[in-house]
Amino acid sequence: MPRSLRRVRPSLAALALVLSAVLSVALVPGPFGAARAQGPAPYLMSTEEAVLLQQAQDYLNSVRSLRGRFQQASSTGNQASGTVYMRRPGRMRIEYDPPAEVLVVANGSYVIYEDGELQQVSYIGLGDTPLGILLRDEVKLSDPAITVTGMRRQAGLMEVDIVETDAPGQGTLTLVFAESPLELRSWRVRDAQNVEVTVNLLRPRFNIDLDRDLFSYRERAGFRRSD
């Protein structure tokens, strides 16, 4: 993988690609399990926005599986593409196109990040990344563990900013929906260093059968686990 791509490789936090429709994956570089900070200030939404947020939650919960192409771009100018598979609860697979030698698998317990160039594998607890928010069996945007910190509407799109209430330093996940009809279009993840990764879904297919083996990971010979 080119050095420039490796610096911004979808670090597990970001990938909060799935979507929860998802989910919303991709990833942002940086340390995981960041130090806990003072609780984030919740967004004070209008009655209309509260209704729209409930509709977005219902939509996310209606999506149990997904397969689609994606394009990923970071605020540092790097780009990548690939294929994402998601099955809730807890399962996701992100395959990056060459020249990136990157595979990400969420197996229900861990997010596993395989770097083919470095021949290295990292295991991160699913609950320690923003990805865990959207891969839950049931997404509850009113859950005390989640704080909605912002909402914006313009040009037929609605954006919702979400953080983990007890660990906002892990990053902000922004879901971008088309409003009519309601549909997830993209998501962004911004880390503590203000690096932002945007993932756009291309021709996604929802609620389809997916092979369970997609979400199993077997370490490759010669690969080592990172600390």
Automatic annotation (TrEMBL):
<protein>
    <submittedName>
        <fullName>Outer membrane lipoprotein-sorting protein</fullName>
    </submittedName>
</protein>
<keyword id="KW-0449">Lipoprotein</keyword>
<dbReference type="InterPro" id="IPR029046">
    <property type="entry name" value="LolA/LolB/LppX"/>
</dbReference>
<dbReference type="Pfam" id="PF03548">
    <property type="entry name" value="LolA"/>
</dbReference>
<keyword id="KW-0732">Signal</keyword>
<dbReference type="InterPro" id="IPR004564">
    <property type="entry name" value="OM_lipoprot_carrier_LolA-like"/>
</dbReference>
